[in-house]
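Appendix B, example 12.
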Amino acid sequence: MSAIFGQLGCDPQVSGGDCPDPRDPEVRYVSHDPEECARIDFDCSPPQTLFSDECGCGCIGPEAPSCPDPADPEVHYVSHDPRECELLDFACSPPQTQFGGECGCGCIGPEAPACPDPSDPDVRYVSRDIEECHLIDFVCAESQTQFVNECGCGCVGPEKLACPDPSDPRVHYVSDDPARCAVMLFSCDEGQTAFTDGCGCGCLDPKLPLGHARQGS
């Protein structure tokens, strides 16, 4: 029996008569038969300790914590080496939380969303200060989506085109089909300005000086 425990590198802890309570969550019996215990070879994971007595044999102590599953997309290991983890200085981006132990170290939680690219023409920041973002009130165009996160706040999405108003007497549409406008040729009268955009194409009369009425009106 002593040879077995010598191979395991653990000293058996023999109780003084009271058997380890199998109902205790920190007690795990491998066998309740002392004779069988003399024939089997088992080990306990630290911080548990091995016991063997007239009651049987097994392990006593809290089970080692289970390691965060590296296959979980919300688990991000920085290192699997606890000794290396003691030397590393790293931080986790909210809402992630830091973990460390015998399994290694890293961050647990969903990754912070990437900041909207300020160079993207469809991105408009109102503020980069998250505290200021909680104090200001702003609205986005109907075609845009509002965002507020650790990057700041603003609007994402293409702004809806402000089409020339066809009911305006200064506006003269040639076509309201942008695809047709791209292949057609048209000219505007002298003084008018041509327009071609996502709304269509046509001509705009010049603005009248203040106080002058359009002829025929």
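The two ends are 114 Å apart (CA to CA). The first strand starts at residue 27 and ends at 31.
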